[in-house]
Amino acid sequence: MHILLIHQAFAALDEPGGTRHHEIAQYLTKRGHKMTIIASPVSYLTGKSEHDSNRESEGTGITILRAYTYPALHRSFVHRIFSFMSFMISSFVAGLKVREVDLVWGTSPPIFQSLTAWALARIKGAPFLLEVRDLWPAFAIAVGVLRQPILIAASEWLEKFLYRHADQVVVNSPGFIDHTRKRGARLVELVPNGADTSMFNPQSMGKAASQRMGYPDKYIVLYAGAHGMSNDLEVVLEAAGLLKIRADIFFVLLGDGKEKPALQTRAEEMALTNLKFLPPIPKNEMPAALAAADACIAILKPIPLYGTVYPNKVFDYMAAGKPVVLAMTGVIRKVIESAGAGLVIPPGNPAALADGIAFLADNLNEGIEMGTRGRNYVKKHFDRPDQAEKFGLLIEDLVDLNKV
After folding, report:
1. Alpha helices (H) in 309-383, listed in sequence order
2. Domain range for residue 70?
3. Are residues 126 and 169 in the same domain?
4. β partners of residue 171
5. Do residue 242 and residue 353 come from a single domain?
6. What is the number of structural domains in the chain?
7. Residue 208 has pLDDT above 80, yes or no
8. Per-residue pLDDT averaged across 379-399, rounded?
9. pLDDT higher than 60, residue 58
10. Three-state DSSP class for 400?
11. Is 89 in the same domain as 170?
12. Does position 52 have pLDDT exceeding 60, yes or no?
């Protein structure tokens, strides 16, 4: 079958950002399917133009089309909306030219591109699969990004419209199931976030990996991911300030995002000589970055709604065999606790974060055991090949049902 994916934030394995979709696409093509992906030339993580608009084919059954996107993604909320709208329109035009499509796959956020996917599915007479990766607009309202009553009402109407008109809804966290059903989704399936454990080798840790990444010869505490307003990285800076007395502990913040310049300025004001910012790296370089770390941080602001998420980074940390310092509540906490894969601390609490990191630095063997348990747990319950197989069977059944 021919699957059309509309995904503004799509990232291949050799690009920074989340690569769940590229990994699943590779698996689907191995099953004999053809994938066309319409993506933005502007990196969703960095906000910079990384590609031209020309068609590029990988020669493996995956074709990527880059549709025009207004480039000022991180300048302000208004500019961000312009970016989303421009891609919504340009991806629709690009999608009209894609022939013989058996399934249209939309993914949210941003939610506007899913409207494009729905429209293309109806025009092409193909089933519409809606993948929900975050609860938008609920998250935007919770953090105060979306405040205007008219925009909130319009966004919630669009969300419910898409849930009701999707032939299949797929969520990546069990925390999203009730939300989507209450807003009109008829068929909801869970294909959770996870990691490909074969990409990560915990035995590759050591000085070579550390030197390659530019880490100092200390106990390395790594945060890898977006530097946005939801990520609460100010708490990490404050924890680093509390641990300045520990010459053996060093923090690395790897990634990019709208808040990164402000965080760098704040770190300078705090004279944090025990902390370093690094630019984002492609997913295929992430195994080395994680191998050189001793412990990894996953953190979000203490907002109740964030208790519904399964962050990708947590599963990568676990797959790499690293103890996780989790400053979050909710469904992901249950994963860490069930696996015995790290320490769970209250979100928004720098002192608790500092204490947890100090404990791991003082109890190296216990941290190594946590990492081993976490990797084994991911391999058993959240390994990417298993998830991709479930997704593949799901869409094959959906297309077969549409042909009846």
Report:
1. 312-319, 331-339, 350-362, 364-381
2. 2-194+383-403
3. yes
4. 132, 190
5. yes
6. 2
7. no
8. 94
9. no
10. helix
11. yes
12. no
Helix locations, 108-206, DSSP H? 112-124, 138-142, 149-165, 177-182
The CATH number given to whatever domain includes residue 41 is 3.40.50.2000
Same domain, 78 and 138: yes
The C-alpha angle with vertex 74 and arms to 239 and 150, in degrees rounded to 5, equals 105
Tokens standing for residue 402:
């549409």
Q: Which residue bears the tokens 């109890």?
A: 363
Confidence of residue 204 (pLDDT cuts 50, 70, 90): low
- Nearest-CA neighbor of 255 among 283, 274, 235? 283
Mean pLDDT rounded to a whole number for the chain: 92
Same domain, yes or no: 342 and 368: yes
Q: How far apart are CA 289 and CA 376, in angstroms?
A: 20
- Element containing residue 66 per DSSP (H, E): strand 62-66
Q: With the CA atoms of 106, 378, 250 and 44 taken in that order, what torsion angle do they form, in degrees rounded to the nearest 10?
A: -10
Q: How far apart are CA 310 and CA 190, in angstroms?
A: 11
- Domain shared by 243 and 226, yes or no: yes
Residue 104 DSSP SS3: strand
In whole angstroms, what is the distance from residue 313 CA to residue 324 CA? 10
383 near 195, Cβ under 8 Å?
Answer: yes
Least confident of 200-209, 222-231, 291-300: 200-209
Average pLDDT over residues 366-370: 97
> What stretch of H or E contains 270?
none
> What is the chain's percent helix, strand, coil content, to nearest 5?
45, 15, 35
Gap between the Cα atoms of 63 and 55, Å rounded: 8
